[in-house]
Design brief:
Pfam families (chain E): BPD_transp_1, OppC_N
Bound molecules: adenosine-5'-triphosphate, magnesium ion
Number of strands of chain E: 0
Strand content of chain D: 15-25%
Largest sheet of chain D: 8 strands, mixed
Shape of chain E: globular
CATH superfamily of chain E: MetI-like
Domain ABC transmembrane type-1 (chain E): 91-291
Helix content of chain D: 25-40%
Structural class of chain D: alpha/beta
Structural class of chain E: mainly alpha
Family (chain E): Belongs to the binding-protein-dependent transport system permease family.
Distance between the termini of chain E: 38 Å
InterPro entries (chain E): BP-dependent_transpt_permease, MetI-like, MetI-like_sf, OppC_N
Mean pLDDT of chain D: 87
Membrane topology (chain E): Multi-pass membrane protein
Radius of gyration of chain D: 20 Å
Oligomer: heteropentamer
Number of domains of chain E: 1
Chains: A alpha+beta (513), B mainly alpha (325), C alpha/beta (336), D alpha/beta (321), E mainly alpha (305)
Low-confidence stretches of chain E: 300-305
């Protein structure tokens, strides 16, 4: 029975005594306490709260030392890190180079990461606080990848749990020790969590970085419904929401007690025109006509409410491959002319698919594009579907025109092209999401070469050239880079400082009034 | 009695078999869970391997048979997202839904009985007309619209009531956190239960009114009046007790509707119960959880109806003696 | 003696009300047993109906009068026994085989409100049987025939397009009789045709039935619990109790000299104009249900003349001479 | 008036308020009942017998209302009483018995509850004592093992038993008058005889008045001392039972008696042509005019009033003098 | 002709005309119905015609609001579609699905109910067990099942085209037991009436008795529950669309319009969701009110199954 009622300490009451509580609402919560279980935005957000990476991105895409105090390139395949001293894990264990090596080894086993860490070799522990990270070949993105190395407490995760299962097991779908327990060095410790419902994270008292944020507790609630999430903020039930649906930007901006922070993001939204399915797409003029028929600036202005950046290429600003001076392409008259030239004045019918709950306004964008294509007499049979069903269909290339959004896990231009525009190749895995079946050997060559280039300037030039080729060849229909958005109550003091283009706010640095 | 129990059990089994087949058919089609649990840049081969590992590549009958085999032992599969047995997840979400349903039921019982009786006794009074008018408006507004309007008015507009979630909870006993014992929890309960009430209450008012009207015309009511009993005794003991039976029966059937409506209500209010869990499971292609939920709901439905029939037997002496027809 | 029109021999009709297989199963003493629940509505009843007569069946509610009537008409197949019509066996005929008899045997029902289809105008109700049994008959012919019958039963043919609810109870009963007469039958089962009617209307309907019998030479199986009516119109009377035949006798004989103890009790209970108070034969106990029929004589639990034999042995109807048949041990032994 | 009369109904009219206007179900009905007297109210279906009976206790159902007249019970007018005041009379001084014992008893309450509640509504009495009285009355109506019956539900009993229980309920408070509305029409002849016998004896023994409503002239004649014959809402003839049966004067009563099949000899029955007019369209003048074989001009002109005719009977007919 | 005369003189018409609520709701329903089915003639724009849709016209408020555009009386939605036109077309879809689903339900339910009630015995118990099982899932459950199933089997390709028939089938299928039970219960009641026996004595075949004699007498309760069912079906469709299992956004029903607008309610573009919301409520309300009147008028004791 319920004879003994154990009253759980009320979070609100407690926080009044101990310090500041940040009530955080996210569209989806982290799926696990194990940072390696999945590579996703949510997990990275979590990792930055509970763990610390060796280095991390600053707001302007520079590297900032965290657990690594400094680093130097020893040789083209070796990067030496000097680790911070006196850091302890949540378990109380001290942090050493061994933990870094252990974590890297685990990353190389993790399904979601093994591809990314494929260029990495065995690290060499120099001493307790020095480690050499090796790559098997010269690799331009070693530091980028080190932002994903969140050292885990190797002692804590070694051995077997009370079920007799190994503690270090990385399991996606079932119970594992790491899924339910954490020991990182990060600013917060998970004190309770109910997946999909509520997380409570408390400040780690022995956190090494003393002069930083003042949030003593984070209560994280996933709220999937956009409108409800916004309502919760407006009603003062939460302090911080992310993401913010674009349609509510105006309202939040207009509301006194809350503020909206936006930032051009790096996820590009595009449509791919499948040349294998539609003969006409092999004709560059038709592709051009499609691209020119789509008023992506208009879409940004109306559907996205101006809160997105129109794109004409994959790479966003700040990325190596970004070309600053690409001209807008929308030109309906020219598009019509091109269709006529190509012999398709009467147009034709294409099928199109898009998800309806994956990207910001994905369904509406697809509809708008369909309406725009109608103007060049292309009849679009549009189908939208939940993301759960979308990817299978996307992979099967069921439609002539398919929407895809992409964010580079490596925060680098090459990643876009490798996945979206490279010639599909089962062995290398390139062009895995190239449902256009667009293939331009020159582009592939350039990107491949850039991968081995450690001179950053040269590398950038190569990537830019590849991007320009795609632009000139009308390889895909670019739309925009999604805006990243957060909204917070005015209690939050330095919200602008902790956010970044990767969409993992550094809540450890947050200050609240 | 014996036949009744056997029939119920076989019905329950049948219901759950059907659900599991249909659930499985959907599961096959609702999307690829592997997609949901891996990052986007994981290679196709890796994914295929994971799929094999999870048995998702087996033919439908094999998967179904495996599911049944485990289900018999009480194992409804593992939720990919929660990384726990699906049944466990459902049970952990059940209190939220049950509290919502309970609060709604309490409101419904407290309101529908007096309102229904009043409307039956005084059908021409303006208050009855008001009840009936309001109730027909109530059933005509879809529950999600009601929910949206409530949020719009009371949370966003007036800021009186919290807009989402269950608020502050207290552990009643392990596995059951209740919002009934805190002011915050109760405040959070107000709007979701109102939304749910708005669609269910009219049904019961109308039902009670109709049944009561019929009962009031019966000979035994006339006889009770002729015996010189007090009006309240005539209404409540002689009238309402007879009305109760159909109301209970319908109430049992309506529970299914109510559970369906919780899906909508919970989604709008982010009430973390079984309903929103189900919708999220669909979105996440967490297929085991989906199937488990459907089977579970089927089970609850059959159980509740069985209980309702048993209660019916307690109230109605004719059933008690004869055994169910 | 007139010829036998309908001959009923050892007819029984049992209804299985045990429901599905599941309902029949029960746990008793840890073992699964299957029990069937039978309503023994009619048990081994035999008698002949002679052409042109009115044979009445009387008895208390639930004694199987209606069931017997329906069994004779083939609405229920008998569980046991045989029925012959003009010497031809009819109880085992397939539905098609029954068709010729449908015009010869008809039925009039008790409830004038339920016996006419409320969604059909009277014309349709009356025309349907004619058209059904005379394929290809001309429209006027049907109309004429219906008008004739309507006139005969005393309903204005101009009202044929009205619906049943526009008529009074007595008129409806006339229409119901018209429907039976319209196929020109020779035998009619009238199941309490006047029980639901007012006294003044009762007389009209009884007269109508008697007139029709006279003009068309009809034979009636007249079912009623109103003994004074039965006494008035019957040629012979059969008394039933709990599905069995107690006594069958010419009307005068039965009323003047009832032999079965049950018949006596029944007759003594008839309210009589002008009698003061009640001097009826009191029966003990209640009528048992036809589900649990008593052993031996079904009346033994209530019979004032009960003795040992009655409890063990089922009495069979014995000819007492003068067309009187009594199924009673006591009567047989001269104790009554 | 005669003080021995416990009940005097004076010019009672009851209307039903329907969509198309008022329906006069009972028109100017007057009769008296002496202490312990048994009166029969007979007539065809719809003649207004039940409505008359119900209106005595103010029980006419919804659209119906007492349009005029008085119901003097022991000198007080029940027709002008409030429902609250009437409650003291109902089931206490005047009891009712309804037609169908299946429907009269509440299926979900035990016999005991339904008996005890009646007593507790009218007497300051404990449940225990109420049960003792109930048992006593059950014995009076010859119910076997009454203790057990108290715990049973109505459907567990046979029809005859149920009607006896209804009678027992009516007797509980030792009323001065019982109104029985067709108490035996739903029952078999043998049981009818028993119930009627019982009622007759109880009324005699307890000196209770009885208004027996029925359409069966034979039954009435065996139980009551006086008979009132109703037709289309009015009493057309009233008098001593033996007089009415033996020497009916009103053409309707005569017709009715002649229509009864009484012996096996007469082939054709005397029939009254047509049927009772609907209350909506009662002809002006005598309501029976269209069915009366000796109808004259005067019958169409004015409504005949109930007045003493030959042999001490009261009859409402222009043609009798 | 005679039928019309009979109808004109009927009590039905008389009491209908005397009830202002019934007359009003019938008028409203008639207007909504006619307007939505004449949408191609009435509506200023066609939401299906991509050529006429200008993205730049999106989210225009109704004319009386600042920023309103006289071309779009009730404003535009996020795609730049005229709300008024879109609602008319959407209502057409909703009504079509509502009535279609009920027709299907009724057809299935009547056949099953008639068979089960008249034949009884094994057929009856099998059919009614099926209905029990079916009732164990609520409408939404069934709809969710089949919605997902349909989407999956036909692929999304045919989905948009098949959505209307699919929803009709789904909602129709989900609720047939209601009809089956109602019809069965009234068949059981009718079957016992003597007119059925009279038909047997005439020698009519069971089929003929079932369809010609019994069926017409069971239609009153069917009619009465039909109004409620139509309202429910429209509502179910809206709910399904709301959770994303109904009509696609570019072939909207009222429900999917409400859903599409739901995200915008806090951002100030209330008209995108409120207008279809009002239209839906008015539609359902008028059907319900009419049904209420019909029920009061026919007042059949609705047989409880
Ligand atoms: N179709 C049936 N199924 C089951 N039992 C039946 C059926 N028809 C009749 N019975 C039962 O058979 C018995 C005899 O019924 P029947 O209707 O023949 O009696 P009855 O003498 O006509 O009575 P009443 O005077 O009330 O009409 C009753 O107990 C009745 O319940
Ligand atoms: N609730 C009512 N609403 C409308 N009219 C009614 C109502 N109750 C009775 N009446 C009318 O009053 C008239 C008299 O009815 P009443 O019940 O007194 O007849 P009755 O003589 O008792 O007949 P029966 O023998 O059928 O019981 C009938 O014509 C009936 O139409
Ligand atoms: Mg019968
Ligand atoms: Mg009456």
């Amino acid at each position: 029975g319920c004879g003994e009622q154990k009253k759980e300490e009320a979070p609100k009451a407690e926080s009044a005594v101990a310090g500041k509580t940040l009530r955080l609402a996210i569209d989806a919560d982290p799926v696990s306490l194990d940072p390696h279980v999945q590579l996703s935005g949510g997990m990275l957000q979590y990792s930055h709260m509970v763990f610390d990476p060796l280095v991390r991105w600053t707001k302007d895409m520079k590297f900032e030392p965290r657990l690594a105090e400094s680093w130097e390139q020893v040789d083209p395949t070796t990067l030496r890190f000097h680790l911070r001293k006196g850091v302890t894990f949540h378990s109380g264990n001290p942090f050493t180079a061994k933990d870094v090596a252990w974590t890297l080894a685990r990353l190389k086993q993790a399904i979601d990461y093994k591809g990314l860490y494929e260029p990495f070799g065995e690290p060499v522990i120099v001493d307790d606080h020095t480690i050499d990270i090796k790559t098997v070949r010269p690799y331009g993105l070693t530091l980028n990848m080190c932002t994903y190395i969140f050292p885990m407490d190797s002692a804590f995760y070694t051995g077997t749990d009370d079920k007799g299962l190994p503690k270090d097991a990385n399991v996606k779908t079932e119970y594992s020790f790491a899924n339910g327990n954490e020991s990182g060095t990060g600013p917060f410790m998970v004190t309770s969590y109910e997946p999909g419902q509520k997380w409570v994270l408390k400040r780690f008292p022995n956190y090494w970085d003393k002069d930083t944020g003042n949030v003593s507790e984070i209560v994280l609630t996933p709220i999937t419904e956009d409108a409800t999430r916004v309502a919760a903020l407006l009603a003062g039930d939460v302090d911080w929401i992310m993401p913010v649906p674009p349609q509510d930007y105006a309202r939040i901006r207009a509301t006194e007690k809350v503020k909206l922070i936006t930032m051009p993001g790096t996820r590009v939204i595009t449509f791919q025109m499948n040349v294998n399915r539609v003969e006409a797409f092999k004709d560059k003029r038709v592709r051009e006509a499609f691209v020119r028929a789509v008023n992506n600036v208009g879409i940004v202005q109306t559907i996205m409410k101006g809160d997105a950046t129109p794109a004409f290429q994959n790479s966003p600003q700040g990325y190596a491959g970004h070309i600053a001076d690409l001209a807008p392409l929308y030109d309906l008259e020219k598009a019509k002319q091109l269709m006529k030239d190509a012999g398709y004045e009467q147009g034709f019918t294409v099928s199109m698919i898009a998800p309806n709950n994956r990207y910001v306004n994905d369904e509406k964008i697809a509809q708008a594009v369909a309406a725009m294509l109608a103007k060049i007499n292309v009849k679009v049979e549009l189908r939208t579907m939940p993301k759960a069903q979308f990817w299978d269909e996307f992979d099967a290339q069921v439609a002539d025109v398919q929407m895809i959004g992409w964010h580079a896990d490596t925060e680098d231009s090459a990643n876009y092209i490798e996945y979206l525009n490279a010639c599909p190749n089962k062995e290398t895995g390139w062009g895995q999401y190239n449902s256009a079946n667009y293939c331009n050997a020159k582009v592939d060559e350039l990107v491949l070469a850039a991968g081995g280039e450690t001179d950053m300037a040269k590398r950038a030039a190569m990537l830019q050239e590849a991007e320009r080729m795609l632009y000139d060849d009308f390889a895909f229909i670019p739309l925009h880079w999604q805006m990243l958005s957060w909204a917070a109550s005015n209690k939050v003091a330095n919200a602008e400082e902790i956010i970044n283009v990767m969409d993992f706010p550094y809540f450890g640095d947050l200050n609240m009034e | 009695m014996f036949a009744f129990i056997i029939r119920r059990i076989s019905q329950a089994v049948l219901v759950m078999l059907v659900i599991s087949v249909i659930g499985f058919a959907i599961k096959q089609n609702v999307g690829d869970p592997v997609r949901e649990i891996t990052g986007i840049s994981v290679s196709a081969a890796e994914r295929e391997q994971l799929r094999d590992q999870l048995g998702l590549n087996d033919p439908f009958p094999v998967q179904w048979a495996r599911f049944l085999g485990k289900a018999v032992q009480g194992d409804l599969g593992n939720s990919f997202y929660f990384k726990r047995p699906a049944l466990e997840v459902i049970l952990s979400k059940a209190p939220a839904t049950l509290e919502l349903v309970l609060a709604t039921s309490i409101i419904i019982v407290l309101l529908s009985v007096p309102m229904g009786i009043y409307a039956a006794v005084k059908p021409k009074s303006w208050l009855s007309r008001l009840f009936m008018g309001a109730s027909i408006v109530g059933v005509s507004i879809p529950v999600f619209l009601t929910a949206i309007l409530l949020i719009y008015i009371f949370s966003v507009g007036l800021g009186w009531l919290p807009s989402y979630g269950r608020g502050q909870l207290v552990t009643l006993f392990p596995g059951w956190d209740t919002g009934f014992l805190t002011k915050d929890g109760l405040l959070h309960l107000v709007m979701p239960s109102l939304a749910l009430t708005s669609i269910m209450l009219p049904l019961f008012i109308r039902l009670i009114r109709a049944e009561m009207k019929e009962v009031l015309e019966s000979e035994y009511i006339k006889f009770a009046i002729a015996k010189g009993l007090r009006p309240w005794r005539v209404l409540l003991v002689h009238g309402f007790k007879n009305t109760l039976m159909p109301v209970i029966t319908v109430g049992g059937v309506q529970l299914g509707t109510m559970i369906a409506f919780t899906i909508l209500t919970e989604t709008v209010f982010q009430w973390k119960g079984m309903g929103s869990m189900f919708i999220e499971a669909v979105e996440r292609a967490d297929s085991s959880l989906m199937v488990a939920y459907l089977v579970f709901v089927g089970f609850v439905f059959v159980t509740v109806n069985t209980v309702v029939d048993l209660i019916y037997g307690l109230v109605n002496p004719m059933v008690r003696v004869a055994g169910r027809k | 003696m007139r010829e036998t029109l309908v001959s009923i021999q050892n007819v029984s009709k049992h209804f299985d009300i045990s429901g599905g297989l599941l309902d029949q199963l029960s746990l008793s003493g840890g073992r699964l047993t299957r029990t069937r629940t039978l309503v023994r509505a009619v048990n081994s009843v035999s008698f002949d109906i002679r052409s042109g007569e009115t044979l009445s069946v009387v008895g208390e509610s639930g004694c199987g009068k209606s069931t017997l009537g329906r069994t004779v008409l083939g609405i229920y197949p008998p569980t046991d026994g045989t029925i012959h019509y003009r010497g031809r066996r009819i109880d085992n005929l397939p539905p098609k085989g029954w068709l010729p008899y449908r015009t010869r045997m008809q039925m009039v029902f008790q409830d004038p409100y339920a016996s006419l289809n409320p969604r059909m105008p009277v014309r349709k109700i009356l025309e349907e049987p004619v058209r059904f049994h005379n394929r290809g008959i001309k429209d006027n012919e049907v109309k004429d025939r219906v008008a004739d019958v309507m006139l005969q039963v005393g309903v204005d043919p101009d009202w044929a397009d009205r619906f049943p609810h526009e008529f009074s109870g007595g008129q409806r009963q006339r229409i119901s009789i018209a429907r039976a007469l319209v196929v020109d039958p020779e035998f009619i089962v009238a199941d309490e045709p006047i029980a639901a009617l007012d006294v003044s209307i009762q007389a009209q309907i009884l007269n109508l039935l008697m007139d029709a019998q006279e003009s068309r030479g009809l034979t009636y199986l007249f079912i009623s619990h109103d003994l004074s009516v039965v006494r008035h119109i019957s040629t012979r009377v059969a008394v039933m109790y709990l599905g069995t035949l107690c006594e069958l006798a010419p009307v005068k004989e039965l009323f003047d000299n009832p032999r079965h103890p049950y018949t006596r009790a029944l007759l003594s209970a008839i309210p009589r104009l002008g009698n003061k108070g009640f001097e009826h034969v009191r029966l003990k106990g209640e009528i048992p249900t036809p589900i649990n029929l008593p052993e031996g004589c079904v009346f033994h639990g209530r019979c004032p003349k009960v003795h040992e034999r009655c409890i063990k042995e089922v009495p069979i109807p014995v000819d007492h001479g003068g067309g009187v048949f009594v199924a009673c041990h006591a009567a047989e032994e001269g104790l009554v | 008036m005669d003080n021995k009369n416990i009940l005097s109904v004076r010019d009672l009219s009851v209307n039903f308020r329907l969509r198309h206007g008022d329906l006069p179900a009972v028109r100017n009905v007057s009769f008296d009942l002496a202490q312990g007297e048994r009166l029969g109210l007979v007539g065809e279906s719809g003649a207004g017998k039940s409505v008359t009976g119900f209106s005595i206790l103010g029980l006419v159902s919804k659209p119906g209302y007492i349009a005029g007249g008085q119901v003097l019970f022991q000198g007080v007018d029940l027709a002008s009483m409030s429902q609250e005041q009437l409650r003291d009379i109902r089931g206490n001084r005047i009891s009712m018995i309804f037609q169908d014992p299946m429907m009269t008893l509440n299926p979900v309450l035990t016999i005991g509850t339904q008996m005890v509640e009646t007593l507790m509504a009218h007497r300051r009495i404990t449940r225990r004592d109420a049960e003792i009285i109930a048992l006593d009355k059950l014995r009076k109506v010859h119910i076997s093992s009454p203790e057990r019956r108290l715990k049973q539900y109505p459907h567990e009993l046979s029809g005859g038993m149920r009607q006896r229980i209804v009678i027992a309920i009516a007797l509980l408070t030792e009323p001065a008058l019982i109104i029985a509305d067709e108490p035996t029409t739903a029952l078999d002849v043998t049981i009818q005889a028993e119930i009627m016998d019982l009622l007759l004896h109880l009324c005699r023994a307890e000196r209770m008045g009885l208004i027996l409503i029925t359409h069966d002239l034979a039954v009435v004649s065996q139980v009551t001392e006086r008979i009132a014959v109703m037709y289309a809402g009015t009493i057309v003839e009233m008098g001593k039972t033996a007089d009415i049966i033996g020497y009916p004067s009103h053409p309707y009563t005569r017709g009715l008696l002649a229509a009864l099949p009484q012996s096996a000899n007469g082939r054709r029955l005397n029939q009254i042509p047509g049927s009772m007019p609907s209350l909506r369209s009662i002809p002006s003048g005598c309501a029976f005019q269209n069915r009366c074989s000796s109808c004259e001009e005067v019958c169409r002109g004015s409504v005949p009033i109930l007045e003493p005719k030959q042999k001490g009977c009261l009859a409402a007919c222009h043609l009798l003098d | 002709m005679q039928f019309i005369k009979r109808f004109a003189n009927s009590y039905l018409l008389f009491s209908f005309l005397r009830d202002p609520v019934a007359v009003t709701s019938f008028t409203v329903l008639l207007i909504l119905g006619v307007a939505s089915f004449a949408a191609p003639l009435i509506a200023p724009y066609s939401p299906y015609d991509m050529h006429t849709i200008e993205l730049l016209d999106s989210e225009k408020p109704p004319v009386w609001q600042p920023g309103g555009d006289t071309r779009f009386v009730l404003g535009t939605d996020t795609q730049g579609r005229d709300m008024f036109s879109t609602m008319l077309y959407g209502m057409r879809v909703s009504i079509l699905i509502g009535f279609g689903a009920v027709a299907l339900q009724a057809a299935m339910g009547i056949i099953v109910g008639l068979l089960a009630g008249y034949r009884g015995g094994r057929i009856d118990s099998v059919l009614m067990r099926m209905a029990d099982v079916q009732l164990s899932f609520s409408t939404y459950m069934v709809a969710i099942f089949f919605g997902a199933l349909f989407q999956a089997t036909f692929g999304m390709g045919a989905y948009a085209d098949l959505a209307v028939p699919m929803l009709i089938v789904v909602i129709g299928f989900a609720e047939w037991p209601q009809y089956a039970r109602t019809v069965r219960a009234s068949v059981l009641a009718e079957k016992r009436k003597e007119y059925v026996e009279a038909a047997k004595v005439i020698g009519l075949s069971p089929t003929r008795i079932m369809w010609r004699h019994i069926l017409p007498n069971t239609l009153t309760p069917v009619l009465v529950i039909s109004t409620v069912q139509v309202a429910n079906a429209i509502m179910s469709e809206a709910a399904l669309s709301f959770i994303g299992l109904g009509m696609p956004v570019h072939k909207p029903s009222l429900g999917s319009l409400i859903k599409a607008g739901f995200d915008y309610i806090f951002s100030g573009s209330w008209w995108i969701t409120i207008f279809p919301g009002i239209a839906l409520v008015v539609l359902i309300l008028s059907i319900n009110l009419l049904g209420d009147w019909l029920r009061d008028f026919l007042n059949p004791k609705l047989y409880k199954g």
